[in-house]
Structures are given as structure tokens and as C-alpha cells.
């Protein structure tokens, strides 16, 4: 049937080795288990290593005992429990804004935000390397979209100067660009927005819990006070759970509570996840310095050995080591080499990255043991 | 420089493609993504001082398609 033929997937590139939908048979321990074998996990966004922390698991179990598996309703109906409200308040305070809502995923947060607040009369200026969820959310709206060169303030300024006649201009970017680890010059972007009357929107998915003196993300990292723009983040990366947050001024968050269809029409995020987020925030508030020190130490050790071994790395300001691997075939091959040494990595090929700009990403969570990192360093030297 | 050469130059500059381009080049084979196309549209607007409806370019497959749409609707 033509319909099915049209949708048939070309699997040629992953015929020999398929790194995607890898079936993990354990939690994010050190090691993780794949096909009954022990693997070192450098593929998850578990930066602080809290996904399998005993304190987090205990909090989740307690919440399930109290509230059960699900409230079987959307937040606007029966899904909004006291724990939901408490976590909204805690995350609002953590980020340092006026109010926040929590959606079932970071993708939904980005999609839902633009659907609810942007119209055809508006204009979106977006970083060329911004995440697919931001772009997809914007595209649905059908407004004018103008990409600016990655982290290029001059180009952004140039576009802002030429953009007139729109109801509202938004400037959309990410804090930490996850395929490479670059960080947006967000203070300068906020200043440009102020100068030209535009509204900044930041996706802090790889920044929250990772950057900033106390792990509070991009606003803390860049000393941005009294932020007037919008903020989104995934809660499934350093915050080690699931869900997505939209935060900002109270007036807009109140509006979204009653107009963001991705929130209103999705079953509320379940109690276990809310309790997990709450506990992770508590741990970050008390132990961030110790945990992040470990995360950065592992990152630096791996980076140094990668460079000495001759790997070509993307310049990074975040704890992400991204090896430039070239074509999709070469990228999958490099990931396979790691896999053959029982190390799980994340290969990025087109369309996630531009054609022939494939990358293999390594993120070492703070939960990994010292001897595990030593094995990683040895393997890097071997496969170079 | 004629219109064809100017468009080719804009595509090359805004998609960072170093190889020699021609009108039949498939954009997907060149690795040009949807944001690259928007960069090209942006640059064309600046170059010719026109306003383009992004939707006109949603089905383009080759560099020649860009030129055809521009000639048909904007020049």
C-alpha cells in the first residue's frame, strides 16, 4: 500500500549497530545493565546523578502510598493536589521568578507556551541551533520566524533593527545547547530585547540544576535579576524526573493556567514524579556544591584525555563532552566503538544536527564511581 | 550579477555550503534544513528590500524552486 511505503523508515545507517531505543534493564546505576551486561552510562542527562538516589526513591514511594499512581484528571480538574501546588511554588522560588506551571513534558511546555501566547501578527527570532520542540511550537502558530546565527549577538541585533510592524517580537533561545555544551550570552540577549522592545524566551532544560552558583540555572549563572521574559525547562535532566516547567511573571502564568491547552487537556503529572522533583530540589539546595564539584571533575578528566587522544571536541562551557564525528556513518561507528567497550554514548546525526556535523556526546553523571571514570579514560585511549 | 547568481550566492552564504551550487541541487541532499531556508528567505528580503510570505517556500525542493517562486510572485 502506497501509504505505508511512503512512511517506510530507511534503517540502512543503523543496520549494523542501532544505538537508538537501546533497552536498559536497570535504573541509572553505576553500572547500568544492557543485554545482561554491565555498561557505563555516559548517555543520560542525569548530570547530578540523582535519578536513582535512595532519598529521591524514598520520597517517590511515600507519595505513591499517600496519593496512589495517578489522580486520573487534568490539573484544572482533579489532577491538582497539594503536592502539585507545593512543587510549583518550590520550583518558582528555585528559578527566581514570580510563578510557574508544570506540564507532563519539556516538549509540551515549549509547544504549549507558544500555542497559547503567540499569534500570526507576532514575530519569533530564534537561535539557529535551538531545540526542535521550540521550533515545532513556533511553526504551528504560523507567525514570521527569523533564525539568527548561533549565539551571534551582532546578527540578532541586525534582525531586531530591521523588524518592525509586528504586534510582539519574541527572541527565543536555549541556555545550554545540549549537542555541544555552548551557553547562550543570555544577559546580552536580554539587554538587546529591552533595547528593542522584544520579549526573551529561554529554554533552560540543560541549565537548571547544572549551571549557576547554586545550580539554579541560566538566570543565576548570568546574574539576571528582575527577568521580564518567559522561562521553560525540562524536569527530566539534572532534576532527574520528568515534566516541563513554564515560569515567568504571575500575570502570564495565571493566563496560561486557563489557556494553555497542553496543560489543561493533559492528565496531570503523577504524584510520584512531583515528589521526586521536590526531593531533588531539596538535595540541590543542600548539596549542590559537593555534587557539582564531582560532575565538573569527571567532565574535565574525560575532556583532557579526549583532547590528548586526538579527538576533535566542540568547545564547551557546560559539563558536556561532544566529539565531532563527521558523517552519520562515522558518528554511529564511533558510538559503536564505545559500545563495544561497554560504554553507552549518545550519537547525534542529521536531522538532529546539520548534515556531516555528527557528534557523539558524553555526559558523566556525578553518581559515577571514580574507578568507572578511570575505565572510561582507559577506553578513550584505546579507541583513539 | 544576475538574479540567479545573486540567489545562489545568498544560499551559499546562509547555509555555509562550500561546494559549487547549481539550480538543480536538492536542498535536503545539501543538508539544508528548515531553519536554513528561513535564513535564506531573511537574506533575500534584506537584499531586495521585499517582504516574503514564508509559506510560499514550504514545499521547495531545489535552489531552482526558490528562484521560480521569486520570479513568479515577487519580481
The helix count of chain B comes to: 3
Low-confidence stretches of chain B: none
The secondary structure category of chain A is alpha/beta
- Alpha carbon gyration radius of chain B: 11 Å
Strand content of chain B: under 5%
> What's the oligomerization state?
heterodimer
Helix content of chain A: 40-55%
Broad shape of chain B: globular
Most extensive interface, chain pair and sizes: A-B, 16 and 11 residues
Tell me the number of helical segments of chain A per DSSP (H or I, 4 or more residues long). Answer: 13
Helix content of chain B: 40-55%
N-to-C CA distance of chain A: 46 Å
Please report the total strand number of chain A as a whole number: 15
* Rg of chain A: 21 Å
Structure commentary:
The complex is a heterodimer of chains A (384) and B (75). By secondary structure, chain A is of the alpha/beta class. Chain A has 13 helices and 15 strands. In chain A, the strands form four sheets. A seven-stranded mixed beta sheet of chain A has the order 3-11-10-9-6-4-5, sandwiched between helices. A three-stranded mixed beta sheet of chain A has the order 1-2-13. Chain A has a three-stranded antiparallel beta sheet with strand order 12-15-14. In chain A, β7 (176-177) and β8 form a beta hairpin. In chain A, α3 (82-95) runs parallel beside α11 (271-308) and α11 packs across α13. Chain B contains three helices and no strands. In chain B, 53% of the residues lie in helices and 0% in strands. The radius of gyration of chain B is 11 Å and the shape is globular. The relative contact order of chain B is 0.20. Chain A binds chain B through residues 126, 128, 135, 139, 142, 144-147, 159, 162, 350-351, 354-356, and chain B through 30-31, 33-35, 38-39, 42, 46, 54-55.
